[in-house]
Specification:
- With 342 residues, the chain is α/β, with parallel strands linked by helices.
- The protein has one domain: Arginase, Chain A, CATH 3.40.800.
- The protein is 32% helix and 15% strand.
- It has helices at residues 37-49, 63-69, 72-81, 126-145, 176-184, 201-206, 256-274, 300-311, 327-341; strands at residues 8-11, 23-26, 29-32, 53-56, 151-154, 190-194, 213-220, 245-250, 278-283, 317-321.
- It has an eight-stranded parallel β-sheet with strand order 4-1-5-10-9-6-7-8, with helices on both faces. Strands 2-3 form a two-stranded antiparallel ribbon.
- Strand 6 (190-194), helix 6 (201-206) and strand 7 (213-220) form a beta-alpha-beta unit.
- The protein is globular and about 50 Å long.
- It binds zinc ion.
- Zinc ion binds at residues 196-198, 284, 286, 323.
Length: 342
């Protein structure tokens, strides 16, 4: 007889599909936007097929939690963008080196002061989708905290790990993983492990001076890959947070064996040394071998193995969806990770 496994709560709100970025500027080219609603639909289909998943909507937009984490001007900017015309897409086009303050967040011409790249648009639905995406992370953390299940999954789309307190970018608007961590933090130390192909610069910045939240990120070499300006090994935290930030980079073409070796030899050891009460897993799947954005060679089986390795930690775990842009297999990859974790 197999042991009974509690259903895993999974959170998604249909209004997250209202945000439909169509194009972005990548290296000066106008390309189809990779962060599509089809990503969420691929994962939803996989979750419905996966046994033991309790898929539901998050209770409410966590406006207080968002405001506690992010600059109020950023919220004003998104709310102003909510008045854009239905067909309008706003890309910031001036990125000032700040000398006189950021300016007026009600003036969308100044939006570049709150943005760090040319890939992350504002539309009238950005605010709603991003707030519900954050709600998924908060509800998943609450479900774990309340002991409902040892693991919960937030289908957070748009993703969050690049969002800083006062900056959006990297397709991210609110830092969903940080919102989950803030729910757990009063109840014990939190480790945030980011396995997205890209460095989680936003998450790093939000906890850089904290000693009760350890941020670890395994990612593609930032000398070659977004976000370029951070994600290096010498970024170890500051003040009392020194030593509680760990960046591990891997070269393009990294395969499952090398990835799992790093996870077992370095990440697990660092996590054991820290002794967290909770794990927040920033789960990006753009390290997948077919992903058009990332450049590792991970397979669907590798994601299940990654989940299996992390399950050895035996920690209450909140899985927060980040990137992953090969839509046909995104759901299978997310399902494989959850299966490994369970
Ligand atoms: Zn990514």
């Amino acid at each position: 007889m197999s042991p009974r496994i509690d259903p895993t709560p999974a959170f998604f709100h249909p209004d997250q599909l209202a945000f439909k970025p169509t194009y972005e500027w990548a290296f000066g080219e106008r390309i189809d936007h990779p962060e599509t609603t089809a990503r969420a639909e691929s994962i939803l289909a996989a979750l419905r097929d996966l046994p033991g998943i309790d898929l539901r909507e998050p209770g409410e937009m966590p406006l207080q939690a968002i405001a506690a984490l992010h600059d109020p001007e950023l919220l004003t900017l998104y709310q102003r963008a909510a008045a854009l015309e239905p067909e309008e897409t706003l890309y910031p086009h001036v990125f000032p080196k700040i000398q006189r303050g950021k300016g007026d967040p009600n003036n969308l011409h100044m939006a570049g002061a709150w943005c760090f790249d040319a890939g992350t648009p504002l539309t009238r639905n950005t605010w709603t989708a991003a707030a519900w995406s954050a709600a998924c992370a908060r509800s998943a953390a609450q479900a774990v905290l309340e002991g409902e299940s040892p693991m919960a999954y937030a289908l957070s789309r748009p993703p969050g790990h690049h969002a800083q307190a006062d900056l959006f970018g990297g397709y991210c608007y609110f830092n969903n993983a940080a919102i989950a961590a803030e729910v757990l933090r009063p109840h014990g130390k939190v480790a945030i492990l980011d396995i997205d192909f890209h460095h989680g610069n936003g998450t790093q910045s939000l906890f850089y001076d904290a000693d009760d939240v350890f941020v670890l990120s395994v990612h593609g070499d930032p000398t070659e890959f977004f976000p370029f300006h951070c994600g290096y090994a010498d970024e170890r935290g500051e003040g009392k947070g020194e030593g509680f930030n760990l960046n591990l980079t891997l070269p393009a073409g990294t395969r499952g064996g090398e990835y799992l070796h790093l996870l077992k030899q370095v990440v697990l050891e660092a996590l054991h040394g820290f002794g967290p009460a909770f794990l927040v897993l920033s789960a990006g799947f753009d390290g997948y071998e077919k992903d058009p954005v990332g450049a590792f060679q991970l397979t669907t089986d590798d994601f299940e193995s990654i989940g299996g390795v992390l399950a050895e930690l035996d920690l209450p775990t909140v899985v927060v969806q980040e990137g992953g842009y090969y839509t046909p297999d995104l759901g299978a990859n997310a399902g494989a990770l959850l299966t490994g974790l369970r």
